[in-house]
């Protein structure tokens, strides 16, 4: 029995070696063209070849071998595992649409499986990894937020939940940075009303981000330029209540003082509602 087992392991090793040798740098393309008979290999051997391609930073080739396991051995345990590995391999190669499709397929088929949280996390990363530049399409950021939220809400006890929360906060901050970028653009060109609309979005919708103090200061600048002193004073009052230690409050304080004004709530604009919420603790 031991001799048979030894010969079986040896035979498997020979096949694995044959697969590695036969599958040269053009292995994936050769296999697709039928030049390599993949049916002679076990799912374990094909899976190992996929891992080998990942180690060589050939994600798309790796994904092909993982997909072959699905095709040839659809009812094997490795077929399920290879599906999520396809998503990982494609993502590592920057093939985001393909990674997204593989991850979504896994989630659809195995929503309660132990790797489902990882598949959802990978799906979110296919959007998140493309939002590093402020000038990019913000639709990607919204999609990233939506998919990261699923990780947090559906798989709160998974090892990926904490990372998803951190990335969610960064993506949320990214949206605010886009509003600030546009608002500053308008402000530099003296388009004060358009600038105020952008800064208002940050104050009302992104008040927990790092951009809120600057948005309030820019509102002080814009309202002073328009001669709307009550609004400028109210914006500064909110800034002083929440972010008094920041440079933005000091800049606003100096601007008001130059105009003989002080930071206090005035009038009945939208800022007064924000100010009241701030005093009631809803802002914090």
Summarize the structure in words:
The protein has 284 residues and is an all-alpha fold. The protein folds into three domains: 102 residues, Serine Threonine Protein Phosphatase 5, Tetratricopeptide repeat (Alpha Horseshoe), CATH 1.25.40; 62 residues; 90 residues, no CATH class. Helices cover 73% and strands 0% of the residues. The chain is built from 14 helices and no strands. Helix 4 packs antiparallel against helix 5, helix 8 runs antiparallel to helix 9 and helix 9 runs antiparallel to helix 10. It is elongated. The N and C termini lie far apart (71 Å). The N terminus is likely disordered. Keywords: Cell outer membrane, Lipoprotein, Membrane, Palmitate, Signal.
What count of helical segments does DSSP give?
Answer: 14
- The end-to-end distance, rounded to whole angstroms, is 71 Å
Question: Helical residue percent?
Answer: over 70%
Radius of gyration: 28 Å
Identify the notable features of this structure and list them briefly.
284 residues; elongated; 3 domains; Serine Threonine Protein Phosphatase 5, Tetratricopeptide repeat; 73% helix; mainly alpha; single chain
Task: Itemize the secondary structure elements and their pairings.
Layout: H1 2-22, H2 27-32, H3 43-55, H4 59-72, H5 77-92, H6 96-109, H7 116-128, H8 138-154, H9 161-188, H10 192-205, H11 212-226, H12 229-243, H13 247-258, H14 270-279
Helix pairs in contact: 1-3, 3-4, 3-5, 4-5, 5-6, 5-7, 6-7, 7-8, 8-9, 9-10, 9-11, 10-11, 11-12, 11-13, 12-13, 12-14
Keywords: Cell outer membrane, Lipoprotein, Membrane, Palmitate, Signal
Main location: membrane
Membrane topology: Lipid-anchor
